[in-house]
Write a structure and sequence with these properties.
alpha+beta, 7-stranded mixed beta sheet, 5-stranded antiparallel beta sheet, 5 helices, binds biotin
Amino acid sequence: MHKLTQKEVFKGLNLENIDFYLLDTVDSTNTFAKKKSLHKDYLVVISEEQTAGRGRQGKEWYSPNSGNIYMTIKFKDKNNAPLSLIIGLLISEAMDSVSGQKLNAGLKWPNDLLIDNKKICGILIESEVNKDDVEYIVGIGINYSLPKKESWWGEISELADILPRAKLINRILKGVITYSENGYMDWKSAWEKRCVHIGTELKVISNNQQDEETGIFNGINEEGKMILQTSNGLKSISSGECSIKGVY
Ligand code: BTN
């Protein structure tokens, strides 16, 4: 397996603005980034493996050393778009741009990426308040190859030739930096275009698996909340695990 190099990963990026760590192993790139202070505009942590990778809602993120992407970007976001949705959108766009093809990795609210109805990427966004600033810790896991897997986990090893890992990381970093500096004007419609479950009946489970709501997914609002058409009218829902009939 080809190991990631600084030259490939940061090609064309201004390293005066970026502190970075390219590691062989770490507990979690998010945990590592949280412990480091932000001295430059961006802090990037990438590891070949994680021994305690973390997913959303306290779940584990299986992180073997098998050529996957485990990356965290820490920065201050001055835009007021919902970062968790923006990052998924930027990754889906980066995949198209690097491959030169319309791979159209689908977005599942709030921020999973799917190919062939299987989850190939997960995003964990944490934040910390430092003095008056909010620092975001954006963790991205993209699976190229998994020695063992659950039925709903996908991998993109077949795309590795057109989607080399280092190039994809480089393009994602460029996308996040461009977004951080310039914002993303029409993010909402771009996100909805790539969403796999617009108009689909969803079951939304929230409040620690306590509450369940069924309705038609009618898109998102400016805050990134999902708009659900339920039998009791439209509801906007800000968090929760949404399980979708027919998708993993
Ligand atoms: C999810 O549950 O879907 C989110 C998974 C996020 C995994 C990534 S891998 C890099 C970063 N470090 C972590 O410990 N988690 C995130």
